[in-house]
Amino acid sequence: MSGKARLYIPRDAGALGMGSSDVEYALIAALKKRNIDAEFIHTGSRGLYWLEPMIEVATSQGRIAYGPVQVGDVENLLDAGMLDGKAHALRLGKPEEIPFLKRQSRLTFARCGIVDRINLDDYRALGGWQGLEKALSLGPAATVDLVTKSGLRGRGGAGFPTGIKWKTVLDTAGAQKYVCCNADEGDSGTYADRMIMEGDPYTLIEGMAIAGVSVGATKGYIYIRSEYPHSIHVLQRAIDRATAAGIIGANVMGSGKAFHLEIREGAGAYVCGEETAMLDSLEGKRGQVRAKPPLPAHKGLFGKPTVINNVISLASVPWILANGADGYMNFGMGRSRGTMPIQLAGNVKHRGLFETGFGLALGEIVDDIGGGTASGRPVRAVQVGGPLGAYFPRGLFDTKFDIEAFTAAGGLVGHGGVVVFDDTVDMAKMARFAMEFCAIESCGKCTPCRIGSMRGMEVIDRIVKGDRRDDNAALLAELCDTMKFGSLCALGGFVPYPVMSALTHFPEDFGLAAKAA
Length: 517
Ligand SMILES: Cc1cc2nc3c(=O)[nH]c(=O)nc-3n(C[C@H](O)[C@H](O)[C@H](O)COP(=O)(O)O)c2cc1C
Ligand code: SF4
Fold this sequence. Notes:
This protein has 517 residues and is an alpha/beta fold. It has helices spanning 13-17, 20-33, 74-80, 99-102, 120-125, 130-138, 140-150, 162-171, 192-199, 201-215, 229-244, 275-282, 311-323, 325-329, 362-369, 403-408, 427-441, 447-450, 452-465, 469-486, 490-494, 496-505; strands spanning 5-10, 38-43, 55-59, 62-66, 91-93, 178-183, 219-225, 260-266, 306-310, 332-333, 336-337, 339-346, 353-357, 379-384, 391-393, 417-422. Helix 6 packs parallel to helix 10 (201-215), helix 9 crosses helix 11 (229-244) and helix 19 (452-465) runs antiparallel to helix 20.
């Protein structure tokens, strides 16, 4: 090594939770003792959480990664020549050559884990702001058209086409319009929103600014759950810098258009991720689901036309504008176009974020990319799409990761969370947990959800106890139908997915005989 050492330290909540800041302090102390001048660059995570803290060093061969590094490894790593990228048991090589990263198509997460997350020059150097510049030169109608042509669908769970939503707001008259970013991210096993907000916040800011200047909204809100303090901190710093640089604010990039951004902290209710409950919460009320119509695109925040999009939907837009609709359409399958950040969680060996075009088989994601279970035991079930997603047995592992294919198989892709369970899981308990979750998180507005979830727990308890098993199983199916078709929103309406999939695919856990195929 010659000159100053340069080390990249991931500081998103995931890496910090694994001890990255302790490792950084140990490195600072050890380098000082050795009289080595060093620069520490704070990045987000690359999303290979089983290898965090993953520390990277700038060397003559490029960036070299080591991980998972613990405080006790620091002296040993420095002795081995870590600053020159030399061999060590923890040496992972060039990060982009690690198979888990190499196999990905990183469009939305292209900069995450690479750049100093709040450095405007870093962002621009890797293609930042090109999408916003393009949107300003194209004008509103052509920008909205391009987003529609890209095939981008909402990544928050419902999969609604983003361009069509934007067009509705563009076409709705209103002196004041808003863009609201849904960063409530309450689904179990999901962290894509958090990762981008803490690793590349300008991508979200740029996506929101594009939405704002395109639909005629001058104000944007990012609704972040209070359990995400690091996201709030990083994003606020990024908003302040982007505003001071004139990129957003009163005169977006000198265009004469205004777009101001503010963060609002949610108190952490799952239902506040439902878009209309989020609007109530943003208005300072208790978060309760509103009946539709009117659509938020017509009458949303404070009764004004409002775009509501998930973090990843908005963060996908800069790439689309900069690279064209066709470029994005080239990824994916069927009507699910572009890429999806799949988030592997639960009992899985390779816990991490894998951005790829839609269309991989579920089995490939779990067994090959995820490496099977962390426990080493056989995979028994996978829940995709959060707490309201179905449990898939091995028999459904051929299902393609595609919105329509998952729906056809009785499940949902949702926000892309994949939670893995080994053969020690009790699926009757998981079904009961789904009902209990619904009972706790229900906003209470409609009866099938508020009361049905309580009755659901009782019925499952009776089945498990052996009390008229077949009758109660039929009653559970009937109750799930009532919840599915009678609930006002998808909290009560989708709980039947985990419950009925557990009952259908794993009847033995309820003490029931398997149905003949
Ligand atoms: C109970 C419930 C919770 C939800 N939680 C979230 C959430 O945390 N984040 C999110 O983006 N969408 C969530 N949604 C979906 C939103 O209602 C809405 O569809 C989404 O924010 C729209 O953005 P998109 O079109 O970009 O996906 C939730 C829906 C329901 C019914
Ligand atoms: S389904 Fe549940 S959460 Fe949704 S509106 Fe009804 S009571 Fe509220």
